[in-house]
Structure prediction request, 311 residues.
Amino acid sequence: MIWAFPILFWSQPDAPWGFYAHSLINRQAVFSLPPEMIRFYKPHIELITEKAVNPDKRRYAVEGEAEKHFIDLDNYGDSALLILPKYWPEAVEKISEDSLRANGIGPWSAYLTMLSLTKAFEEKNSAAILRLSADLGHYLGDLNVPLHTTKNYNGQLTGQEGIHGFWESRVPELMATDYSLWVGKAEYVEKPQLAIWEAVADAHSQVDSVLAIEKQLTEDFAEDQKYSYEERNKLTVRVYSREFTEAFALALDHQIERQMKRSIKMIADFWYTAWINAGQPDLTLLDQAISDEDEKTTPDAKIKVRSHDNE
Prediction:
């Protein structure tokens, strides 16, 4: 059969976890907050949901943003998790900041964002609380994605280009409505920095299975079964077929659902911890009229980001 479509291109997401998944994760985290917090967050849940994708938009407009979303552990060798300092000052002292940024600073940056959120709570700055809560949710979500912890982030080193968007965007878009995403009540995190690194280690331990399962399924599926075509934005695009997507999710044994739930729980826990560390300010007294000015997201041609983000 000859396909005669005017435009064909690989369907890749515009963002890690996909806009849909990031928004869903942030939104769901709100419901795990205690009454003292949810009274403030719930009326602004749409803002928390919509701004979940702002860090991705900034990657193209703000220098230094892109490296906050990942860490390529394998660039540091097999013992990366043992040799990398968990705290930013020690990391900069041991490894040059340029090298750290080149390989991604996700774990350290997420913790600094949490500190900024704590300060916003202390200052009772409503707009900053919401903006930083959305940002922190995004960064923690990214660090729970296995492919955000490896230099082979899009399968480009193993002939599996496109697997990044497949795992974090295509699968959730087709299947997340069947996920059970309730994770219980938020809990205080005694050692946030170490908790972040534990999440990164857990995500990284799953990289091999993600790649191996996709490779095996590709061998089992014919080319015309692996891909299909859909209409998006008035264009016909090539996407992973529903059958291949469902087979991938089944073979992963709910891995993507588990990682989404871990993201949701971690985000709620970190919001709660920042509030506790700020002295549990009374959020009912905060200004409910929140300015929703757009952040700078105009693309800057000088800023380069990882190739899969541009496809």
In short: Residues 71 and 104 are 4 Å apart (CA to CA). The two ends are 26 Å apart (CA to CA). Residues 18-290 form a domain with the P1 Nuclease fold (CATH 1.10.575.10). DSSP finds 15 helices and two strands in the chain.
